[in-house]
Amino acid sequence: MVGAAVAYGLARAGAHVRVLDEGDTAFRAARGNFGLTWVQTKGLGNQPYFELTRASVDGWTALAEELHEVSGIDLAYRRNGGLVICIGDSEAEERRRFIASFKQQAGNENYDCAFIDRPELQELFPNAEIGPTVSGASFSPMDGHVNPLFLLRAFSGGLKRHGGSAHTGHAVKEIRRSGSVFEVRTGDHTFQADKVVIAAGLGTEHLARMVGLDVPVRPERGQVLVTERTSPVFPYPMSGLRQTDEGTVMIGATREDVGYDTGTTVQGFAGMTRRAIASFPFLAQLRLVRGWGALRVLTPDGGPVYAESESHPGAYVATCHSGVTLASMHANLLPRWVLENRRPSELSTFGPERFHVQPAA
Questions:
Q1: How does strand 134-140 pair with strand 144-145?
Q2: Domain identity same for 199 and 343
Q3: By residue range, what is the domain housing residue 114?
Q4: How far is 242 from 148, CA to CA, in rounded Å?
């Protein structure tokens, strides 16, 4: 998703773009994406990350309209607000403290989020009874959701429309300088380019070393469930619950430190369904139709990394775990950096050097 957005933005700006994609054998984070364009939980303790996230989501309506026009695909993007459901008094109190801390950091006007109590929450769901242990929720009009599969298709179609190309089944084995160009080797093929953008998810760390960058990333498994289609019941997306434009309900997601294991577990599915049913008991009547596991891409502090190599000028790295939320920024701000050779001030704090600061003696 990250690479697709950057490639689309570069091609739209007139660059000659070739995407090299390992294929479905790769640990694709996009295959587990929940489809949220989310702001309210991003960046507590990291104001630049919050501002980057909010700015990207503010640009999402224009991006959705642009991709619809260029690809013919309606992304089903909606920005009517999002909720974090709280079960029990302790979760409600913790959420209130979270909101208060964020407002103190970002300012009341910049951080548009409020806690709503149980009666007000029930009014937001006229077609679904909330569970008896639900104590309330945080609500932010900054949030929304989109069909992530349509988004990926639209980026792919838009790339081709602007003259770019994509090559699947090309796992990159080597990146090296050869005179004034980069040579990228994939098995029996070697491609040349003036500039290279590495946006390879969990493969980023290995590839970044080839251009002199140290970008630590690690996997975190998230399991997701999808129900059968049902009539519209959820007018708002929630952290861990959302109804898609096709009518299915997505339930997620676990956070598991299990290395590169993309499997599923009974324990993971049981924990997600218990919470979902506690939030909305009617969900117990729906059939589950599929479930899967995927790996998030996380840096040591959870924030994104955007960098150009000093030893290999013209080689860039872009990695994050919010590929949908930050898609607007990836399609606009990053291509401008690559093409104009000027690092945007909005990205100045997201270099990998922040992970290698030596402690004071």
A1: unpaired
A2: yes
A3: 36-142
A4: 13
Q: Please return the burial class of 102, using the count of CB atoms within 10 Å of its CB with bins 0-12, 13-18 and 19+.
A: buried
Domain assignment present for 164: yes
CA distance 173 to 185: 6
278 to 88, 119, 271: CA distances (angstroms)? 10, 16, 11
In this structure, the answer to whether residues 306 and 206 fall within a common structural domain is yes
- In single-letter form, the type of residue at position 291 comes to G
pLDDT band of residue 340 (cuts 50, 70, 90) is: very high
Query: How crowded is the C-beta side of 150, counted as CA atoms within 13 Å?
Result: 20
Question: Which candidate, 346, 352, 359, places its Cα nearest to that of 47?
Answer: 346
Q: Residue 69 has what pLDDT? A: 97
User: Are 267 and 231 contained in the same domain?
Assistant: yes
pLDDT band at 50 (very low <50, low <70, confident <90, very high): very high
- Are 143 and 79 spatial neighbours (Cβ–Cβ below 8 Å)? yes
Residues 6 or more apart whose CB falls under 8 angstroms from that of 97 comprise none
Q: How many domains does the chain have?
A: 3
Classify residue 24 as exposed, middle or buried by CB count within 10 Å of its CB (0-12, 13-18, 19+): exposed
Within a 13 Å sphere around the CA of 349, how many CA atoms are in the beta-carbon half?
11
pLDDT tens, position by position, 199-229: 999 999 999 999 999 999 999 999 999 999 9
- pLDDT tens string 258-309: 999 999 999 999 999 999 999 999 999 999 999 999 999 999 999 999 999 9
